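Input record (one chain):
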Amino acid sequence: KTREQTEHSPTVFQDMAHGWKEFSSRSWVVAVVAGYAIIAMIFESVFAVVGPVHAEEVLGGPKPWSWILAALSAGMVAGVLVSMKVRPRHPLVIGLGAQLGVVIWIFTMGVTNWIPLIMVSAFFAGIALDFFMVLWQTAMQTNIPRESLSRVTSYDAFGSLALAPLGLIIAGPLTERFGSETTLIAMAALFLLVLGLMLAVPGVRKLEGQTADLGSKSL
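The corresponding structure, as predicted from the sequence alone:
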């Protein structure tokens, strides 16, 4: 009996192939993961490279940057609390729309050195980030069959972070060449463009928060 189970158990490559089929068959998953590969690249660049350089050269050093990050973190906590109270019919539309808060934060840093305003925008950016993450995880759990969820989640985690190291590599040279203000504004514009492209996908706009039949959901 043990031998029979072993012979018929799927190999790693079969698991990967099945996971890819489940992942690629859902346009809303592919669109969001592809978009967030770029968004994560932008965010990591701002968080780890462009932001600290900008703080040192324009905002007054590490102290104001720590205040900005504290406001961002407080917003993330608030974002989780907000997501517990909100159950939108179209979670991806609302969640991605909320990411305008992150765009505004990055853009604000590029056009002003007034710390209180940057902190306020950072707080709302934090709300937007975790608000979307909760809606995203809930959308996958309610729209993907349970037996396929772990495989799709694996591709989600890999794809969303795939370009983050590239962002860290190119952020320094871009900031040195164009300056932190111009780099931040350009990153905000790219962020906005990616959001628009994700929302242009019909599967993203039409996805509903709850489904009666998980096995038939594959937009």
